[in-house]
Design a protein that fits this description.
The structure is a single chain. The chain has 4 helices and no strands. It is mostly helical and 151 residues long. Helix 1 packs antiparallel against helix 2, helix 2 packs antiparallel against helix 3 and helix 3 runs antiparallel to helix 4. The protein is rod-shaped, with a radius of gyration of 32 Å. The N and C termini lie far apart (81 Å).
């Protein structure tokens, strides 16, 4: 019987240990990085996306409603519904108030619709509709800064 005896030196033991430990350390570091990402970073990204998606939904409904206001004959309840949409948009911001150009434009739309309730002459209605459409277009452009995806 031939029994081969291999002599292992201390340098061979160190290389064998490093060969095992380096991949193990890399795996553990990767695991720690992944856990850290999913605990701390992923919820922030998800929350930001959900808020932007909710803002987009509110603004889409609001703009759709505003585009139908021109064809209405009775304006009872219209200012209240516009105010509700404006409040929802205000609440999407941390301060509870939309930034100045946006807040001012929403307030202008609200006041214009309140004034429309008192207008009865055809020429005044026509002028109001033109001014109203311009104000809604301006509001839409301002809202797109917070909901738009494409440049």
């Amino acid at each position: 019987m031939n029994y081969a005896v291999q002599v292992v030196t201390s340098s061979d033991c160190n290389s064998i240990n490093l060969g095992i430990w380096i991949p193990a350390i890399i795996s553990i570091l990767t695991l720690i990085i992944n856990i850290t990402f999913y605990i701390f970073i992923a919820p922030k990204i998800t929350s930001r996306y959900q808020r932007k998606d909710k803002m987009f939904e509110i603004c889409s409904e609001f703009m759709s409603y505003l585009s139908n206001v021109v064809s209405l004959t009775s304006f009872s309840g219209v200012p209240t519904k516009i105010r509700n949409y404006c409040l929802q948009i205000h609440l999407m911001f941390l301060s509870g108030t939309a930034p100045d150009p946006l807040a001012t434009q929403m307030e202008n739309i609200f006041k214009m619709v309140q004034q429309r309730k008192d207008i009865s002459e055809a020429t005044e209605i026509s002028e109001w509709e033109t001014t109203y459409r311009d104000a809604v277009r301006s509001l839409r452009e301002e809202l797109s800064k917070y909901t738009g995806f494409f440049k």
